[in-house]
Design a protein that fits this description.
One of its GO terms (biological process) is regulation of lipid biosynthetic process. This protein is mostly helical and 382 residues long. Among the domains are: 51 residues, no CATH class; 35 residues. The chain contains 19 helices and 2 strands. The chain has a two-stranded antiparallel sheet. β1 and β2 form a beta hairpin. It is flat, with a radius of gyration of 36 Å.
Length: 382
Amino acid sequence: MEFDLSWLLLGLPLAFGLGWLASRMDLRQWKRAQSDSPRAYYQGLNLLLNEQQDKAIDAFIEAVQHDPDTTELHFALGSLFRRRGEFERAVRVHQHLLNRGDLATSDRDRVQHELAQDFMKAGLFDRAEQAYKALQGTPFDTDARLALLGLYERSREWEQAADTAAALEKLGTGAFGTRIAHHWCERALELDGRGQPDEAAAALATARAAAPNAPRPLLLAGQRALRLGDAAGALALWGDLEVRDPQVFQLVAQDYAEAARAAGQQEAARQRLTEAYRRAPSLPLLRALARLDGAELADAPGLLPHLAAQPTLSAALGVLARPVEQWDAASAQAVREAVARAAKPLQRYRCAACGFEAQRHFWQCPGCLSWDSFPPRMLDEP
């Protein structure tokens, strides 16, 4: 049987035409798929910029369905879920990405960082800690350590917080000495509460070594010394504190006066407190001077001049505590000025819509332009 070449000549063009037609259909379908995904992506981006998060999430979900291999869409979707407080959905999105075998190392580290933030926001601190620890040695190392530091401080794990802060300082992230001192001070308070005085003293010593100029270790050490009956030791520690940080010293000024009375060093303490008051007059120092004589603030001879110079409500209350027979015109005038000064910030009207405050009543708020949003009563009225 002879082979008819005419069929071959007819079949080749037909096969070529069918192949070309099939390729065009595949190309058209591919282009349609590619165009659908960016359209949904840009639509979601536009909705996000317009603060329409619900619709933006729907658009991004549609885009992910069209192109499930696009990592950036997953990142955007996970961040949106976390911002909306839908932490479980955010975790699922990021864990789905993390389980992909074709994910680049840089993207994997980024996903791990996002997942750690999901756990942190959701209050799953144990899982957040593990997720952040997995980022050590990656480009997110510093961010992870800073997050762990905040996590340990929140959960009051002070020794781990101090170790993390020390590691950050070694990495050149910044100076953490004062923060480490606070960690060991908190640890000392915990140990004292548990009846472990020796360990508490060691923790305070570590705090002072971490930040020699920090005021809190000196303050706590003086309080511990006074509780243990060492009034002279407390005076020495607080005297050092007054030199280093006079403002913080005011927190223990009355305790300083009590320690001076217990140690029989009233005159030396009076000189120090008087000089400190001369440099920076304050009510705690004036109260401490009165305490040296076993008196209250109302009995302090310098109270009225202090009220005239600093008309505060606290000083006015001290004057009001005096017996009526000790009142005079100067006392009444000083109290009147103090009350007027304290009341002035409250003699305002506040917009119920935006919080804008003004000294006069407005029918339309100058801040948010709302009508009838100013109550007719001032802030100091019930």
